[in-house]
């Protein structure tokens, strides 16, 4: 029986019940898979000061059960959540006179987050113990968390434990201007440790694998052994959604509101649309939490009168609600400047929703001929979604109307 040391630091630090990101979902998915494998001796671990400390398996089981119960409650309830109810009312209204929806501030969720984290931290700290693992065991980290700490993988390799890690992207290295100031150096430490000591690297896309190999070459090192394992999507995106009719077409953009998502470009385009179409302008829904370097986006949302009445910003939708929202959209928009893997694009394609995305390597890999790809730095034109043959060809037939018909 193989012993696997599975790093649960991401769950411990973030608490994936609260608007989980793509990486949060990956950690939970791998945890479920490992817990269901009778041929694996699973040891959950946390990383502190470059060393591993073990956590009882029952703690991970309890955390996953709580997340699953929370997800089932939200995804299978016949009663829509308050955010989805409010958004549907707004999109079903003929006018834009009511105030636009805005996502809850992270500060508003602090009491619940603190309670969640204290419960996990209290149990974990009371049960931490040294890790006992001999040569032949596997260390698995699918979240980046803890890998910037000193000699984490080196110590494991020295003991004959095989480090297996997932690399989600190299954005902080290749595009440091889109990240927090300390992110570049932190990610450089992670990736250098991975290139030197990882027995196997899992990447979410071939694009990420190529970027990792290129970065290894800049360091004068050989690329590590790599396996591409694209991310899966939740079952809600394969279900038939109940029919509902928005008052007029709307478009959706899903992802954290941060600089690399290029939302300022998108909002500038929407302002041009509003100038041309007035009350007939389609609406735009931004789904995601507010992230790093988003001042330009927030200025648009808070101060631009043309954009203010047309753009709704929400978070905290369940998978089922998000699938219903994207499934009824005229198109999903993803103007990102950099991605390691773009899960919303894949989800939209699974639903049969048209996709208009930036022409970047990962979008060519994931969506190629199934999406309309555009230059993410092109100056917004007055009517970018109307009579452009490149765009119209990827959308349902609509002639030269003000928006694509569904």
Short characterization:
40% of the residues lie in helices and 16% in strands. It has 406 residues and is an alpha/beta fold.
Structure description:
The chain folds into two domains: 2-55 and 128-228, Rossmann fold; 83-107 and 242-392, Glycogen Phosphorylase B (Rossmann fold, 3-Layer(aba) Sandwich). 40% of the residues lie in helices and 16% in strands. The chain is built from 16 helices and 14 strands. The protein has helices at 9-14, 22-35, 57-75, 82-92, 110-127, 152-158, 171-174, 183-197, 206-218, 263-277, 295-303, 305-308, 319-327, 343-351, 361-366, 389-392; strands at residues 2-7, 40-48, 51-54, 129-130, 138-141, 162-167, 200-203, 226-228, 250-254, 283-287, 311-314, 331-334, 355-358, 372-374. Strands 4-3-2-1-5-6-7-8 form an eight-stranded mixed beta sheet, with helices on both faces. A six-stranded parallel beta sheet has the order 11-10-9-12-13-14, covered by helices on one side. Mean pLDDT is 82; it is low at 380-406.
Helix content: 40-55%
User: Structural class, judged by helices and strands?
Assistant: alpha/beta
**Which fold name fills CATH's third level, the topology of the largest domain?**
Rossmann fold
Radius of gyration: 22 Å
- Principal-axes geometry comes out as globular
- Taken as a percent bin, the fraction of beta residues is 15-25%
List the secondary-structure elements in sequence, H or E: EHHEEHHHEEHEHHEHEEHEHHEHEHEHEH
How many separate structural domains? 2
Oligomer: single chain
Distance between the termini: 53 Å
Q: Give the neighbour order of strands across the main sheet.
A: 4-3-2-1-5-6-7-8
CATH architecture of the largest domain: 3-Layer(aba) Sandwich
| Main pleated sheet | 8 strands, mixed
Mind telling me the CATH class of the largest domain? Alpha Beta
């Amino acid at each position: 029986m193989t012993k696997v040391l599975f790093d649960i630091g991401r769950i411990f630090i973030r608490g994936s019940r609260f608007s989980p990101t793509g990486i949060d979902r990956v950690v939970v998915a791998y945890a479920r898979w490992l817990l269901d494998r009778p041929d694996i001796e699973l040891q959950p671990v946390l990383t502190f000061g470059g060393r591993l400390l073990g956590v009882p398996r029952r703690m991970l089981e309890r955390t996953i059960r709580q997340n699953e119960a929370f997800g089932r409650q939200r995804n299978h309830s016949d009663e829509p959540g308050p955010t989805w109810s409010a958004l549907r009312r707004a999109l079903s209204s003929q006018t834009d006179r009511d105030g636009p929806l805005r996502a809850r501030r992270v500060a508003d969720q602090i009491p619940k987050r603190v309670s969640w984290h204290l419960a996990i931290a209290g149990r974990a700290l009371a049960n931490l113990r040294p890790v006992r693992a001999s040569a032949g065991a596997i260390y698995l980290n699918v979240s980046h968390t803890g890998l910037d700490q000193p000699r984490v993988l080196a110590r494991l390799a020295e003991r004959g434990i095989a480090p297996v890690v997932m690399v989600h992207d190299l954005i902080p290295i290749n595009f440091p201007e889109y990240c927090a100031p300390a992110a570049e150096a932190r990610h450089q430490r992670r990736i250098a440790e991975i290139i030197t000591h990882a027995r196997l690297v899992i990447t979410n896309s071939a694009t990420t694998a190529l970027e990792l190999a290129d970065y290894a070459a800049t360091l004068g090192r050989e690329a590590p052994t790599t396996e591409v394992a694209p991310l899966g999507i939740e079952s809600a995106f394969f279900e038939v959604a109940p029919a509902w009719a928005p008052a007029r077409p709307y478009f959706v953009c899903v992802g954290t509101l941060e600089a690399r998502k290029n939302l300022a470009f998108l909002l500038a385009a929407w302002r041009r649309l509003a100038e041309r179409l007035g009350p007939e302008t389609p609406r735009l829904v931004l789904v995601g939490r507010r992230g790093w370097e988003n001042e330009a986006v927030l200025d648009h949302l808070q101060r631009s009168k043309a954009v203010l009445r047309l753009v709704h910003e929400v978070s905290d939708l369940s998978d089922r609600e998000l699938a219903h929202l994207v499934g009824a959209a005229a198109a999903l928009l993803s103007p990102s400047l950099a991605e390691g893997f773009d899960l919303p694009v894949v989800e939209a394609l699974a639903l049969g929703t048209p996709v208009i995305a930036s022409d970047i390597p990962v979008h060519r890999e994931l969506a190629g001929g199934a999406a309309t790809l555009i230059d993410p730095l092109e100056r917004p034109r007055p009517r970018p979604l109307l009579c452009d043959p490149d765009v119209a060809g990827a959308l349902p037939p609509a002639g030269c109307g003000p928006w694509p018909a569904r």
